[in-house]
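Researcher: Last one for today. Full complex below.
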Amino acid sequence: MAQSEPHPRQNHLLAALPAADAERIFPQLEYVPMPLGHVLYESGIQMRHVYFPATSIVSLLYVMEDGASAEIAIVGNEGIVGVSLFMGGETTPSRAVVQSAGHAYRWAGQALKNEFYLAGPMQRLLLRYTQSLMTQMAQTAVCNRHHTLDQQFCRWLLLSLDRLSSNELVMTQELIANMLGVRREGVTEAAGNVQRAGLITYQRGHISVIDRPGLEARTCECYAVVKKELDRLLPYSDGL
Amino acid sequence: MAQSEPHPRQNHLLAALPAADAERIFPQLEYVPMPLGHVLYESGIQMRHVYFPATSIVSLLYVMEDGASAEIAIVGNEGIVGVSLFMGGETTPSRAVVQSAGHAYRWAGQALKNEFYLAGPMQRLLLRYTQSLMTQMAQTAVCNRHHTLDQQFCRWLLLSLDRLSSNELVMTQELIANMLGVRREGVTEAAGNVQRAGLITYQRGHISVIDRPGLEARTCECYAVVKKELDRLLPYSDGL
DNA sequence: GGCCGTCTGTGCGCCAGCGCCCATTGCAAC
DNA sequence: GTTGCAATGGGCGCTGGCGCACAGACGGCC
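Model: Here's the assembly. Have a good evening.
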């Protein structure tokens, strides 16, 4: 996608809206910056807005009583942050943090709910996206149980890059460790392995993918499952 | 709850329906047996019905390519099996298996969808339940990452018992191991520890809880989070 | 009452990831 | 350029859970 003008259609959910709905909704959206590390929602706190990431990535992560954390899902330009607003719960026990800086389209919670109850295309899109989010969470649970850190690192990298439509990522190993819920040193080792295999280069927070097929071969099935399910639920053609 | 007559209100979602909706919906439900091990849905296969467990428990579990498995959520009389029908995806990449035999109320998928699109109380209940299910999945992911098998065993036991409104469970260690995605021997050890601590008795597939507060103290925070979130989203009073 | 299959308990060696500590290396700000 | 700090890379010993193999123990069935 061209970097050019910001436009709501950079977000795939918004892009999938029919013209009539888009005309009604787009004027309600606000284009806002998403600085790295910014906390959009805190666990248990009432949300006022939802966010449709355009050029940013948001992590949904769970912070435990002892401070340990784990990411449960990644949201980028394929989705929306704040599903609990239309699901009815208003809050969730998780935190939403900007993982990769950029921009997003912000929408007032009440406006979203009004639109949702019209039971039109937006409702359909939101529900289908929510299902894909559930798949991602479920897969994260499975992956945490069964797969090696190397595999999880690759999965995480691929999922993140897909959501940026890029093959570069700015992210320290420390942050990745927080996301994956592992030691920083563990990420150092995993990243080192992948780098030695010639699949990426990693220099002080800058990851570049050299061999994407190689990465996909190295990761576990979890990545493919999540991707396939998203494609199935929300087919997106870039040219739309 | 009295064991007496089967009645849809044994399921908390159905019980929460206002009289008018209940009168419309209940006649469409079919009271069906749920034999142990019965597979309600297979990964990727179109679903024809949803199930409201009354006296049974259903595990949503993920089976990997190599045969390893992991449970991502437990559904009992507090919920419904088959959320992807109204979420729009029709299928999920997971499998639904009866984990504790009993009965459930079955509802035709199309009837459910018709009701859902009325945007009445049933829709609200279903969406809120789905959110609680997401919490459970997320918590499972976190728990898999950070907590010991002992803690996970306690969490699993408590979640299961809550969904049976009982303090006894019929379940071999082999099955529990499949659910938790660990070795059978691991479960033997965890169960042994908990039994030696005087919190349960375990005899050839029959688990009885002796000291419930003790169990709750021994498990991780994950149990409380899931329970609290369910109570918040779907408050249920037994006398309703 | 005896047999058999299922379920449970235990004992190895093994390894991935943890917690802790410190060495090195770039980038950036002055 | 120098200095300072964030970021990365490695080296310990430790432990929880794995894979495997086998020994009891209970329960149902004939």
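Chain A has a mean pLDDT of 92. The beta strands of chain A are 30-34, 39-41, 49-53, 57-63, 69-75, 95-100, 102-108, 168-170, 200-203, 206-209.
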